[in-house]
Amino acid sequence: MSDLREIFRDNLPHPGYCLVLRPFGDEFDRVWATIRDALAETFYWIAVASLSRSGRIMEEILLAIARTDVVIVDVTTSNANVFYELGIAHMARGESKVIIVKQRASDRSEEDNARLPFDIAGDRYLDYKPTLDGIQDMLPELKTRIRNALERTSWFRLAEGSTYTSDAFSGPGGAYQFEVQAVAFLDRSVGREEKNFREGSVSIELTVRPYPLMDRSVPAVVSATLSSGAICKIPNLNWCLKFEYFESDRDQKEKDKAVICVIPAV
């Protein structure tokens, strides 16, 4: 395994990425598939279960922690591997970027808390019942904590020809709303198809308007072609668009989608 210091020196976190560290098993597969489906349109998720199961799995996990903005850790069952990864995440990302969750074993919170190891028993963790209703009850608070940890970075996915409309963003001259149209997808033959990712370029048209819309206001319109990892400044706002890659469907049931994040301007 590579030196930890080298891994975290050479791999910087990608804004907006959420990594889920959790025990393996059918119950946890079901719980986290439900959570991921509910929030996938807002946050980009990576789960340890989706990584390669080769002999280098721990190195892949460490790389994922290094490249991830926020780490969600399910400490149910007090799994030794999960706690090892939690310690590394705390060290690498900092406490504000780590969200701890745990299944509720009973309705008596004192007994639930007693099941946690002493070192993290005092942490502000989020508990949930592993039922559909229990997961739905937890989702709003989990979404809030992820948003707070991501420091307002957000994600969206666009099929070719489709348009994304943002919420209002506060800027130096007031509030603005922007639209992004994916005009065309280019050069998708290059990439990492084995992991459902394709690198390439996307041609976009970015339109920025004051919010609320004023009758005589003239929108700012920017046309750009972004390669994977490229950034486009949003006019009138201290924010940028960053094109990551194309997300492909293995079964070809859905069209490729461009994965784009909104990040603070440097």
Name a few traits of the molecule:
266 residues; alpha+beta; Tick-borne Encephalitis virus Glycoprotein, domain 1; 6-stranded antiparallel beta sheet; 28% helix
Question: How would you sum up this structure in a few lines?
Answer:
With 266 residues, the chain is an alpha+beta fold. It contains 7 helices and 16 strands.
Shape: globular
Helix content: 25-40%
| Sequence of secondary-structure elements | HEHEHEHEHHEHEEEEEEEEEEE
Helical segment tally?
7
Look at the helices and sheets and give the structural class. Answer: alpha+beta
Low-confidence stretches: 107-114, 190-194
Instruction: Tell me what portion of residues adopts beta-strand conformation.
Output: 35-45%
Return the CATH class of the largest domain: Alpha Beta
- Topology-level CATH name of the largest domain: Rossmann fold
Biggest β-sheet description: 6 strands, antiparallel
Domain unit count: 2
Please name the fourth-level CATH homologous superfamily of the largest domain. Toll/interleukin-1 receptor homology (TIR) domain
Gyration radius over CA: 20 Å
Mean pLDDT: 81
CATH architecture designation of the largest domain: 3-Layer(aba) Sandwich
The total beta strand count reads 16
Separation, N- and C-terminal Cα atoms: 34 Å
Descriptive account of the structure:
The protein is globular and about 60 Å long. It has helices spanning 4-10, 26-39, 57-67, 80-93, 109-114, 118-121, 132-150, and strands spanning 14-21, 44-47, 68-74, 98-103, 126-128, 154-159, 163-165, 169-171, 174-186, 191-192, 197-198, 201-210, 220-227, 231-233, 239-247, 257-264. The relative contact order is 0.12. With 266 residues, the protein is an alpha+beta fold. Helices cover 28% and strands 36% of the residues. It contains seven helices and 16 strands. The model is unreliable at 107-114 and 190-194 (pLDDT under 50). Strand 8 and strand 9 form a beta hairpin. The strands form three sheets. Strands 6, 10, 11, 14, 15 and 16 form a six-stranded antiparallel β-sheet that branches. Strands 2-1-3-4-5 form a five-stranded parallel β-sheet, sandwiched between helices. Strands 7, 8, 9, 12 and 13 form a five-stranded antiparallel β-sheet that branches. The protein has two domains: 4-150, Rossmann fold, CATH 3.40.50; 154-264, Tick-borne Encephalitis virus Glycoprotein, domain 1 (Sandwich).
